[in-house]
Amino acid sequence: MNILKRHKTDLILVILCFGTLLYFNLRNGRNVPAAKGFRVVASTTPAMIQEMEYAIKNRKYLAATAWRPHWMNSKLKIRYLDDPLNVFGQEEDICTVVRRGFGEDHPQVMKFLRQFRWEPADLESLTWKSTVRKGEYEANAREWIAEHPELIGRFLDGVQPEPGAEIRIVNNGFLNELTAGNLIKVLLEERLKCEVVLTTTTLPIGFEALAGGTQDVHLSVWLPRYHQQEFAAIADRVEIIGPNLHGTRLGIAVPEDIPVRSIRELGKFRAEFDGKIIGIEPGQGINRLAEEAIRRYGLE
């Protein structure tokens, strides 16, 4: 009892200090940005799509990076969120780019590539075949060619064969690019009698190979914005034939039936989304744009 009396003042001070620390920790915990904000969670494209499919089926909230053309747009009931600050940019073009001197070396192939123009829905329908029948790119391309005789006729109008011409096409390995590359490969080999080699590599390596002349054609250069930084490094050493597809779109998508219409509104539903925007493979530009959107819209 005497001990308690002697240390009564010390005990009161300890209790007061503990109470003060507890108060400020609880108050600050409510104000930690991470507790309120969003972050981009890198994933893979197939995993992101599977999560979106699950969310749609089970009426869950999910925000994910999305783009067009991709077969998910025709198979999943998703809505792209409005982007009033234009972080993801306007519709862009997918361009065909060739090495310098390619047109002089292969005039008929050049004519064919200039006439190669299609719509996002065309590419999405071809890509869907390669999603159902994985790896059968050339077989899927031949089937798709048989289903679209008028479009193929426009590609090949007035084009003459170039027997034995060796054409090297480089791509970045995404499904859209693999399906498009194999379509062009089949047409060049079977209609123009060329010999075609497809090479898959990373974007910077592919661009440098094109600029250095060890590759001939790249069919998937997104301009003017998405690949702007990477393309600027080689722009004066290659030739842009022009867009082969117009109407690309990048953004953040959610299941169609949830009540969110704009990126700005995500902050109101932080708990429902668990503070996450599901991205794709690490290092991809669309992930960086999603992170920029988080900053620009004050969602940290």
Describe the structure.
With 300 residues, the chain is an alpha/beta fold. The chain is built from 15 helices and nine strands. Strands 1, 2, 3, 4, 5, 6, 7, 8 and 9 form a nine-stranded mixed beta sheet that branches. It starts with a helix and ends with a helix. Residues 1-7 and 9-34 have low confidence and may be disordered.
Number of helices: 15
Low confidence ranges:
1-7, 9-34
Helix content: 40-55%
Q: Strand-and-helix sequence, N→C? A: HHHEHEHEEHHHHHEHEHEHEHEH
Mean pLDDT: 89
What does the radius of gyration come to? Answer: 27 Å
Shape: globular
Structural class of the secondary elements?
alpha/beta
Q: Report the sheet-strand fraction.
A: 15-25%
What is the element layout, followed by pairings?
Elements: H1 2-6, H2 8-31, H3 33-36, E1 39-41, H4 45-57, E2 63-68, H5 72-75, E3 78-80, E4 92-99, H6 102-105, H7 107-115, H8 120-132, H9 137-147, H10 149-156, E5 166-171, H11 175-190, E6 195-200, H12 203-212, E7 217-223, H13 228-232, E8 238-255, H14 270-273, E9 276-278, H15 285-296
Parallel strand pairs: 1-9, 2-9, 5-6, 5-7
Antiparallel strand pairs: 2-8, 3-8, 4-7, 4-8
Helix pairs in contact: 8-9, 8-11, 9-11
